[in-house]
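A reminder from the course coordinator: this example appears on the midterm review sheet, so study it carefully.

Given structure:
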């Protein structure tokens, strides 16, 4: 079964969510005595502060995108090196056999520049395998075992770069999902704390009441906006 996507409960940036959460934390500490009357004690405020810290500690998408781009560049460099070595080998093979011959085609290097990463990886393995089988016939054009060994090492590095690139893509997907999940938890707590703050200061201190209105959900704000229009 396909995993369902996780959606944000808040409709602004993570940076704005963090900024509002920090502002709310300061207000909670300032009004800690009043919140205690609603069962929200210092331990609850400390847990809220820890939740903010956990949210801020998750790498941003920009950071993970940068790591993914670096991995992509290294993968491309590794692929270029594999192609370079294959061409060097095939230049020697071409001195011995015509490019239309079966012995040449056996290496399977047609359209080398257009090969996908998996096809290039398999092509390199085939060139090594066929090259080793043909060494006795190609030594007079300069093909030798050290050249095939060099291609083998480059192909191993290419394979590793492919895995690292895939890991970076996966890391980014997982981190984005975790950030949304944690952001939703933080936003939910902000709404709850904000509602308590409004209950505390409604009809008592308008300025303090207004400070907690910031944490209403977008749905509540939209309902109030519609109610004002109807009036």
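Designed residues:
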């Amino acid at each position: 079964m396909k995993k369902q996507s996780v959606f944000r409960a808040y409709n602004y940036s993570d940076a704005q969510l963090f900024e509002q959460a920090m502002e709310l934390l300061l207000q909670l500490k300032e009004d800690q005595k009043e919140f205690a009357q609603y069962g929200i004690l210092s331990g609850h405020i400390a847990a809220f502060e820890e939740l903010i810290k956990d949210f801020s500690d998750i790498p941003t998408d920009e950071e993970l995108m940068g790591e993914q781009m670096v991995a992509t560049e290294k993968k491309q460099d590794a692929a270029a090196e594999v192609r370079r070595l294959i061409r060097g080998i095939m230049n020697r093979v071409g001195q011995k056999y015509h490019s239309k011959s079966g012995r040449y085609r056996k290496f399977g290097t047609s359209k080398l520049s257009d090969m996908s990463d998996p096809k290039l990886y398999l092509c390199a393995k085939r060139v090594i395998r066929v090259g080793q089988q043909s060494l006795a016939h190609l030594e007079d054009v300069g093909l030798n075992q050290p050249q095939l060994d060099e291609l083998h090492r480059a192909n191993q590095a290419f394979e590793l770069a492919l895995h690292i690139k895939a890991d970076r893509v996966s890391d980014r997907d997982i981190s984005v999902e975790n950030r949304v999940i944690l952001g939703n938890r933080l936003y939910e707590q902000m709404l709850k704390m904000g509602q308590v703050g409004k209950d505390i200061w409604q009809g008592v201190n308008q300025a303090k009441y207004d400070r907690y209105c910031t944490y209403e959900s977008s749905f509540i704000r939209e309902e109030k906006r519609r109610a004002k229009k109807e009036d």
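Residues 145-201 form the longest helix (57 residues). The mean pLDDT is 90.
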